[in-house]
Design goal:
By secondary structure, this protein is α/β, with parallel strands linked by helices. Helix content is 37%, strand content 25%. The radius of gyration is 16 Å and the shape is globular. The mean pLDDT is 75.
């Protein structure tokens, strides 16, 4: 997983999503395809440390018109540099969407495409199903969330986060991830 993917994975995890990286779509016919991530958020997902509710990026949910009280599914494509939109009307995109919606089952009407790139800024939702969000925005929000959580609890290992996420946070901080993306 590259740095941009790590940042997006951490961002989604800190916002209550369960993230599946490098998700392989196995269609009934034809070749398999891959999405950078599939993310699932359960209704009213929240985390608490020492009795304090941990901060999430409310602007993301509001700007994209996502209801935190409902299940949310994301099919995420990430491009670390400037790029054209990752999702277009190709047959490959349509097959990914069809497969992923079947994967999500009963709440497939709450599945959104999420295109992450340097080409975008603040999060927004276009055409009802496509979310566009900038990697610089995500990096800044990760930095803010880490800072706020650090104020609640000065030891990262007491956040009760899984070891993989904690390792990613430490890694991103050590390499100065915000310098590259801000």
């Amino acid at each position: 997983m590259n740095t941009a993917e790590k940042i997006v994975s951490v961002y989604l995890r800190l916002n209550g999503f369960f993230v599946l990286n490098q998700f392989t779509h196995l269609p009934e016919f034809g070749y398999s395809m891959e999405s950078d991530m599939i993310a699932i958020r359960c209704p009213n997902s929240e985390e608490r440390v020492n009795g304090n509710k941990l901060q999430i990026d409310d602007k993301f949910f509001e700007s994209c018109k996502l209801n935190k009280n409902e299940a949310i599914g994301l099919i995420v494509e990430i491009k670390g540099g400037s790029s054209n939109p990752q999702f277009n009307q190709t047959t490959k995109t349509k097959k990914k969407i069809e497969y992923a919606k079947n994967f999500f089952g009963d709440f497939q009407d709450k599945v959104y495409l999420c295109d992450v790139s340097d080409s975008y800024n603040d999060p927004n939702k276009k055409d009802g199903t496509l979310i566009k969000i900038g990697i610089r925005y995500i990096a800044q929000e990760v930095k803010g969330i880490i800072k706020k959580r650090g104020e609640l609890c000065n030891k990262q290992n007491s956040w009760y986060l899984n070891e993989g996420l904690l390792s990613d946070l430490i890694y991103l901080e050590k390499i100065g991830y915000t310098n590259k993306f801000l």
